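Handoff note, outgoing to incoming analyst
You'll be picking up this chain. Sequence as last confirmed:
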Amino acid sequence: MPRACMEFNDVVMTIGDYQYNEFRNSNWGIYAVRSMLKVQKGRFYNMNKGGSLYGSAAHKGSAIVAESKTAAKAGKLQVADCLIDTCEHGIYTEWTTADINNVNALHVTGNGSYHLYCNSVNMSTYVGACNIVAGKSGIVFQNSEQATMTAKNNTIKVTTGGSSVGIKIIATNSNAGNYVLKGNVIEAANGNGITVNFAKNATIFDNMIKLSGNTINGIALTGCDSSTVSCNTVIGRYPAVNYQNKGIYGSMNQKCYISCNITDSLYKGVHFSSSNIATKFRGNEMKKHYIGLYLDNTAVIDTQSHAGNMWTGTYNSTYGAWNENDSLTSQLFASLFIVDPVLGAFYNPNIPLGINPGEPNDQGWFDQIVGGNTYSCTGSLLCADKPIERSQGSGNLKEAIASGDVLTTDYIDESKSTAKLFLFEDLKKDSLLFSNNPVLMQFLSNNATSVFGKLNNTKQLMQESFTIDSLYILQINEKDSLLKIHLNNVKTLDSLAAADSTIENLTVRENEIDIIANIQQDINNILSITIANKVAKLNDATTWNNAVQPNEIPEYNLKQVNDINIIYEQTNSNDSIIQFYGTLLNIAEQCPQSGGMAVYVARSLVALFNDTIVYDDDNVCLQQGYFRLAQKENKKSIPSDIAIIPNPADEMTQIILSKKQEGVCKVSITDAYSKSVYTKEFDCKTQHLTISTKGLVQGIYFVEIKINGSTVKTAKLIIAR
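Most recent structure output, in case you need it:
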């Protein structure tokens, strides 16, 4: 099988115009490096991975590949009016600005349109009016936080496996992304409709998603910041088929706006998990489901005042809304709904009151207050974003987090840690906004040099490493505008020559190419000036991250992931972090509610090597939840006369009993995945056991001490070197 039908390096070229070109039976149809191409009216058939002769690149079998390795050498690709049929992948770009229009991609076994490292201020990707039928993913935007990434008015169907996704956004640095998914029609026969992981400023609106098979989520927003999910419709086949799917799923997000969506015929209409501080959940309509709105026992979404959500369907559980996080009334109030009872049952769903076995007692979760200006989607002209509707969230919730109050029924310590990290970041950005609140200002001051302050400084410096001075941005944009003008001139010259072979415009074209080369060099020179800033910021980030002394699993995981992510951002090459794949996968496979935000970051980094992994969070969290719940019960009677010293430990630690005990003491140590790594019995009268920890990798472990078969203490042991 040939390497490629056509291959280019460093060219400006138009391929196809008045007649169709056909490309068949190769590893790649068109393979372009550092080039500026316009491809139109092309037909691509049977592109497949033809063995190892031409390497093992993940994009082998693509109809069109356009790639570079840095922003300074970034290319441009324009594709229009093309047919792709029976190929491994459709279109793949890397460090390339892309404009993809009216592409019909059928029988694609992998990805329809995949875009990696579109990651500079002068770059963008647009995929519009395409029809894609793919096994793995329809459209993927990966590691493109600085560019504008848009998928608009596409029709997509994904067909195979739990990892398949209609449109997927994967980010590794929640910097200042600009993702827009609008007007797409997606059918997911498996997997998910839309997934967005660890992204900032993602806007998902006016999409129609049909979950036709054994699917997971219609729209999943995980670890995101300041993102919008509005005016989407997600529909399934429940109760005709009893799949355990969800219309909209949100976990560990900050300041996200979810409004005017419709969910229908799904097991759960909307599911929230973990801390989602300053969430706005407004004007959403939940129709026929098992449960309309579900908050699990780690969920916090902040106060929703007269938000105008509607429960207009039938619910096989009999409950329109269900909050599992009900151990304390204050936990219910962390997600308080204030509704007007005058509006009737559609706005006031039936909730469980703890009467039947296994049901939570959600009394007080919906506070009925007559009056108020109830939000309505009617007349809403702009679903994409409503900055005026955003808020900083409840001051009471912020004070509860700052005071260390219990927020969740399970994963108590981990949830506190995650919420405090979010709160510190929020206060640090907008300290003037909260300057009249002594509780919050004291929290900010107390934690400036704590683990939360250090982790926030690390994150801030990593984000700043991508920041380019506004003057340079202006210069780059001006040069890029000139570049587009001269590229269009070349395309016009090519089109004229294709229409009339007697036209001789080669000299004019060569002059345009020279101008384009000069403009590219100017852009390269400007970008090179910013490299020193990036290096300095990432070095400072490393210093702060090294100073972190974690106390909980989310903090330890985040420190590890930061170390790896900094190396990755220094090189923008996954080859630089391949040796850390095992570490990343271990974190990625953890329950997010236990492992914290780092779990979602690790998943984005793992996706650089393998984006087919299905993370079974429900089962993993269930197993770890029972384990942690048992620990929580044991913590109620922890005696103060048993010590673990030193902790953190390096090569050894000791179990010390301050007073003599009769009988046998047994020490068991397990890792974060409940795997036993050490067991030992000793005579309690000795009051002392020395444990070698040389063979334990860095991380957080759990120590259980039993005396005569009864657990008397559980505690964390940190191994740090």
